[in-house]
Design brief:
Number of helices of chain A: 10
Shape of chain A: flat
Oligomer: heterodimer
Strand content of chain A: under 5%
Distance between the termini of chain B: 91 Å
Strand order of the largest sheet of chain A: 1-2
Number of strands of chain A: 2
Structural class of chain A: mainly alpha
Strand content of chain B: 15-25%
Number of domains of chain A: 2
Distance between the termini of chain A: 44 Å
Largest sheet of chain A: 2 strands, antiparallel
Radius of gyration of chain B: 23 Å
Number of helices of chain B: 11
Shape of chain B: globular
Chain lengths: 263, 310
């Protein structure tokens, strides 16, 4: 089930977007997300939509792959539609028992779903085209100024990349523990949600124990290889701004300024 | 006149102070020991919930051991004999309760020197998964040099060289999760090679591997020892792996109980068995069928067998 979620799954390719500096993509995504929340008319989404289409075409990520990522959000979207349709006051179009459908409700629902879709696809585009290690490196370099306020930027970035490395290992381990318990008659598949959640406790406890043990061993191995925090550290692949990064940064600024002139 | 004396005195003082500083590294010419354990005792102190001492386990007990440069030394011992504790002392992960450990002339108790010690004595751990940090093979190998602050060009060269050395250059962009256990251990070895160490400590590197992986790792260790002259400390409880070593040290309850070449150690089969260890299968077989001498390898077995038939 966990394998079906494609948000945040890197899609390997050699496109321009893939080769862009992670920092540019990160800033771009932030600007894009903010732009989505600045407007409350459908026209406001137009520049973001155009921008997104250009990026999708340039990146060469198949639309089907992106749609798969949206599917994971289906439940949330249905929720959003129902709440908006029935709970927004306005001119009543149809009525049944305590449910009222209003014109404002319909508009609001469409608006919210569109915004959510643009949001998910847009932020997904960053993770489809950036490897996790580039992403953490980019964030580390972008947030470096926060170090003045004693924010442990390097440490957080290091934790993120280690967490990403251990996700598949812990998944495999969880699977192993579940199988071992199923072999002894544990039942994870029947009963209501509460019952199923309860059945997971005996899986989580050994999983946590082993995760802590792993963490201890990993810390020892890191120390044995001279790890002493971010001070005086170099990088195998340092982030470097190329020509295309400057060009896209200028385009990005153009986009943001253009948004300012929108009605 | 007094002025000259005074300035000479100051100068001498300076020289003396400088000597004192450089004297931290106690390695002098003619000293062939890379690692020196001088009467080392190490105690694990168990505490109960209130922090009172619950019990003391002596893992190393007044142990002295010199490991020569370029040597392949195997340290044998059953579970809980203190062999892993010994390994962690060489890498300055633990410091002795009593006594002294010197690695390449640096005292492991000295916090400022720990960096240099870990650089010259790398360590391969038991669990291949729990010592790989990065998401691609290449980046993991670079982790040590990154910490040392090696410049990019030099680092790229080191990473490529050490990956070629263990034969994983083609896999450099892959995720470590896709490698076999033996290959993961090789990545760990490459990660240490990239730090240009004088000594590599293998702490039961084959315990979680299949037979193919085991052979691969032990062969790599021997190759590094012979071709690159790297000192190897192999910690294990698998007898077969120690056959090619220059010296075997058997540890029991934190003390050295036997020491010598593999032939010397394995000819005392009874003594080993009383320590809860078994002879290599081929040595055991040769003894059972009554062949003469201490047989260590397949070739020796064949020779001894033919001699017995004549």
């Amino acid at each position: 089930m966990i394998r079906d979620i494609t948000i945040g799954q890197y899609y390997p390719s050699e496109s321009v977007i893939h080769r862009l500096d992670a920092r540019v993509k990160f800033i771009g995504t932030i600007a894009y997300i903010i732009s989505l929340f600045l407007f409350d008319t459908f026209w406001g989404f137009l520049p973001a939509f155009v921008w997104l289409t250009v990026i999708i075409v340039l990146s060469g990520v198949p639309v089907r792959y992106i749609a798969k990522g949206l599917k994971a959000m289906l439940f949330l979207m249905i929720f959003l539609i129902l709440f908006n349709i029935f709970l927004t006051p306005g001119e009543v179009l149809a009525e049944w028992w305590i449910f009222k459908i209003t014109d404002n409700g319909l508009i609001n629902a469409a608006f919210m779903v569109l915004r959510l879709m643009l949001l998910v696809v847009g932020s997904g585009m960053m993770t489809y085209t950036t490897t996790p290690s580039q992403l953490t490196a980019g964030m580390e370099s972008l947030f470096k100024p926060l170090g003045i306020f004693k924010v442990p930027v390097h440490e957080v970035a290091m934790m993120m990349s280690i967490a990403l490395r251990f996700i598949p290992i812990l998944l495999e381990e969880a699977d192993k523990i579940m199988k071992a318990q199923q072999a002894r008659g544990a039942d994870f598949e029947s009963g209501n949600i509460l019952k199923r959640a309860k059945a997971l406790i005996p899986v989580l406890v050994p999983l946590f124990v082993s995760a802590f043990r792993r963490a201890g061993e990993l810390a020892e191995a890191m120390e044995a290889r001279c790890y002493h925090g971010g001070k005086g550290r170099t990088k195998l692949h340092p982030l470097k701004f190329a020509k295309r990064d400057y060009v896209s940064l200028i385009l990005l600024i153009g986009f943001v300024v253009g948004m300012g002139f929108m009605p | 006149m007094a002025c000259i004396f005074l300035s000479m005195g100051l100068l001498l003082n300076c020289v003396y102070v400088n000597m004192e500083r450089s004297g931290k590294r106690r390695l002098f010419k003619g000293d062939k020991a890379l690692v020196r354990f001088e009467n080392v005792t190490f105690e694990y102190i168990r505490r109960d919930e209130e922090g009172n001492v619950d019990g003391i386990t002596t893992a190393l007990d007044d142990l002295s051991l010199h490991i020569r440069k370029g040597e392949f030394i195997a340290i044998l011992g059953s579970n809980g004999s203190g062999k892993s504790t010994l390994a962690r002392h060489i890498n300055a992960l633990l410091s002795p309760t009593k006594g002294k450990v010197l690695v390449a002339g640096y005292d492991t108790c000295n916090v400022d020197d720990q960096f240099k010690i870990r650089q010259s004595a790398g360590m391969v751990f038991q669990n291949p998964d729990n010592q790989i940090i990065a998401e691609t093979v290449e980046e993991d190998v670079a982790f040590g040099p990154e910490n040392m602050g090696i410049p990019v060009e030099e680092m790229t060269k080191r990473v490529d060289d050490s990956l070629k050395r263990v034969g994983l250059y083609k896999k450099r962009l892959e995720s470590p999760n896709r490698l076999s256990g033996g290959q993961k251990q090789k990545v760990a070895i490459a990660g240490i090679l990239a730090m240009k160490p004088e000594c590599i400590i293998f702490d039961e590197p084959t315990a979680m591997l299949d037979p193919v992986g085991r052979r691969m790792i032990i062969e790599t260790a021997h190759e590094l020892n012979k071709k690159d002259g790297i000192t190897i400390v192999l910690i294990t409880h698998n007898m077969e792996e120690t056959v090619g070593a220059d010296r075997i040290v058997v540890i029991e309850k934190g003390k050295i109980v036997m020491e010598g070449t593999p032939r010397q150690v394995f000819s005392k089969g009874e003594e080993l068995k009383s320590l809860g260890m078994e002879l290599p299968v081929i040595t055991e077989l040769a003894q059972r069928i009554g062949l003469e001498g201490c047989v260590l390898t397949r070739e020796e077995f064949v020779k001894a067998f033919e001699r017995a038939q004549d």
